[in-house]
Task: structure prediction
Amino acid sequence: KQEVTQIPAALSVPEGENLVLNCSFTDSAIYNLQWFRQDPGKGLTSLLLIQSSQREQTSGRLNASLDKSSGRSTLYIAASQPGDSATYLCAVREAGANNLFFGTGTRLTVIP
Amino acid sequence: NAGVTQTPKFQVLKTGQSMTLQCAQDMNHNSMYWYRQDPGMGLRLIYYSASEGTTDKGEVPNGYNVSRLNKREFSLRLESAAPSQTSVYFCASSADPKVTQYFGPGTRLLVL
Result:
């Protein structure tokens, strides 16, 4: 069974710092990987989706990379802002399956 | 567009009671999903519907039933609620199973 791990569980940084969130998965036979943002008491918002054939995706200050062979993905946030404070979740879709397997998330706090 | 809507937002049940969680999407998506989110665990798929007229079990289907009423609506029913079903339930939809999923705001369920 696919297992997705996100370390650290929580992270606090001062405003303006660049930061990296990590995601690892146990089975490299994935179709794609997604990063989501979840604000307290709210649903999930999709940030980036990387297909298994891609190495990275960028959207504004966010850059997600994928190393399928090593089972790792990173989400890079440039010039962090207090509005970036949220929980960030990664999820993988296995090849041939409809399931998304989620990590437990990293709770990010950006301190003004 | 409202996106994905869920009702109710919050519900308290007694053990053994039944209830139906409602989900609707206005994005003309073919695929719809029900997840539960528990503290310390990633979101887990309960049931999904790849297209209108089809439903399939996910990772944790026991104690639940679903109905894909039409293309817009996908309901989740708890026939006899148990305290272990206390959770936050999220509905999601996507154009097809392999692309980005869009999530509703969630239903918080407490079973006493």
